[in-house]
């Protein structure tokens, strides 16, 4: 079954926002990664290295609130150039297979705009971003470890 989770973008205060959400909803952060931890960050301004590249806070049984800081940068095709409240949320899909990810991504991209092609990302997942023909921003992220976990459950069930 596909899961869908909100992905929030903030203008440099993701950590503050997520500490607030943690105080409201409880739980513990998952997958906290700072921009300074990413490949190719050597030429990044020092102030940006401490900002949040990705953070996740589980909400309830199967929901995750995720977020990032949108960095300032130059150029019209830079995400930071177009940031404003209202366009600062994406819907993140977690399909059950790479094939399903391809199918969903292609369907959402039809008549829309591919922001980041669907491909294996440096963190190991199959990831892409697209804005559909209605202006809705989508992220498709298939986690390969899902396959491994599923295979383990099948092996345990057969043991």
From TrEMBL:
Residue stretches spanning the membrane: none
SUPFAM superfamilies per record: Glyoxalase/Bleomycin resistance protein/Dihydroxybiphenyl dioxygenase
Highest taxon, organism lineage: Bacteria
Matches recorded under CDD domains: PhnB_like (cd06588)
Domain PhnB-like: residue ranges: 4-140
PANTHER family: PROTEIN YJDN (PTHR33990:SF1), PROTEIN YJDN-RELATED (PTHR33990)
Name under which the protein is recorded: PhnB protein
């Amino acid at each position: 079954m596909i899961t869908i989770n909100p992905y929030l973008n903030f203008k440099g205060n993701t950590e503050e926002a997520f500490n607030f959400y943690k105080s409201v909803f409880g739980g513990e952060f998952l997958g906290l990664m700072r921009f300074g931890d990413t490949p190719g960050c050597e030429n990044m301004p020092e102030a940006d290295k401490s900002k949040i590249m990705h953070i996740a806070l589980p909400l309830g049984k199967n929901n995750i609130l995720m977020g990032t800081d949108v960095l300032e940068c130059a150029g019209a095709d830079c995400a930071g150039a177009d940031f404003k409240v209202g366009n600062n949320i994406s819907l993140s899909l977690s399909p059950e297979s790479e094939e399903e990810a391809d199918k969903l991504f292609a369907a959402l991209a039809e008549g829309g705009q591919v922001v980041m092609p669907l491909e294996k990302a440096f963190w190991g997942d199959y990831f892409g971003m697209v804005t559909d023909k209605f202006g809705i921003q989508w992220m498709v992220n298939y986690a390969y470890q899902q396959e491994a976990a599923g295979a383990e459950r099948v092996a345990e069930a057969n043991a």
